[in-house]
Amino acid sequence: MNAELKKSLNHTMLESYRYNREKTEAIDKMQITFHCCGAGYYKDWRASRWLRLDKNTENKTPDSCCRTPSDGCAKRDHPSNIYHKGCARKLEEFFRDNLYIIGSVGLGLCCLQIIGTALACCLMQRVKWGTRLQ
């Protein structure tokens, strides 16, 4: 899962950051929440469309990679300043840690669907028998 997640995340980050508002906001929120930067490593950002085309920025990464995010904080990519670990590994850990909760919720919803279907069948039979008796 890690390789596919990393590949997809890397493509989204490198091609969509600053060019798609929703994806940019999601990437920033993910990097701040999970204390990570880039898909596999913070240096992934060097190949991004945003840094290649925006000649006005001095940033090495987005500001959301900073340990204390602020405007222009990512001009230095020193370990004391930005997160170096990639987000793919952090997301995979998050999914793995919460898999039981996700599975339990899914199983609970499945049971509710089955109970609802059974009750609907009972109601249908009752209505059917009720019309025959009259």
TrEMBL record:
<dbReference type="GO" id="GO:0015031">
    <property type="term" value="P:protein transport"/>
</dbReference>
<dbReference type="InterPro" id="IPR018499">
    <property type="entry name" value="Tetraspanin/Peripherin"/>
</dbReference>
<keyword id="KW-0813">Transport</keyword>
<dbReference type="GO" id="GO:0030154">
    <property type="term" value="P:cell differentiation"/>
</dbReference>
<keyword id="KW-1133">Transmembrane helix</keyword>
<dbReference type="GO" id="GO:0005576">
    <property type="term" value="C:extracellular region"/>
</dbReference>
<protein>
    <recommendedName>
        <fullName>CD63 antigen</fullName>
    </recommendedName>
</protein>
<keyword id="KW-0964">Secreted</keyword>
<dbReference type="GO" id="GO:0005765">
    <property type="term" value="C:lysosomal membrane"/>
</dbReference>
<keyword id="KW-0653">Protein transport</keyword>
<keyword id="KW-0449">Lipoprotein</keyword>
<keyword id="KW-0458">Lysosome</keyword>
<comment type="function">
    <text>Functions as a cell surface receptor for TIMP1 and plays a role in the activation of cellular signaling cascades. Plays a role in the activation of ITGB1 and integrin signaling, leading to the activation of AKT, FAK/PTK2 and MAP kinases. Promotes cell survival, reorganization of the actin cytoskeleton, cell adhesion, spreading and migration, via its role in the activation of AKT and FAK/PTK2. Plays a role in VEGFA signaling via its role in regulating the internalization of KDR/VEGFR2.</text>
</comment>
<comment type="subunit">
    <text>Interacts with TIMP1 and ITGB1 and recruits TIMP1 to ITGB1. Interacts with CD9. Identified in a complex with CD9 and ITGB3. Interacts with PMEL. Interacts with KDR/VEGFR2; identified in a complex with ITGB1 and KDR/VEGFR2 and is required to recruit KDR to ITGB1 complexes. Interacts with SYT7.</text>
</comment>
<dbReference type="GO" id="GO:0031902">
    <property type="term" value="C:late endosome membrane"/>
</dbReference>
<dbReference type="Pfam" id="PF00335">
    <property type="entry name" value="Tetraspanin"/>
</dbReference>
<keyword id="KW-1003">Cell membrane</keyword>
<feature type="transmembrane region" description="Helical">
    <location>
        <begin position="99"/>
        <end position="124"/>
    </location>
</feature>
<keyword id="KW-0564">Palmitate</keyword>
<keyword id="KW-0325">Glycoprotein</keyword>
<dbReference type="InterPro" id="IPR008952">
    <property type="entry name" value="Tetraspanin_EC2_sf"/>
</dbReference>
<dbReference type="GO" id="GO:0009986">
    <property type="term" value="C:cell surface"/>
</dbReference>
<keyword id="KW-0967">Endosome</keyword>
<dbReference type="GO" id="GO:0005886">
    <property type="term" value="C:plasma membrane"/>
</dbReference>
<keyword id="KW-0472">Membrane</keyword>
<keyword id="KW-0812">Transmembrane</keyword>
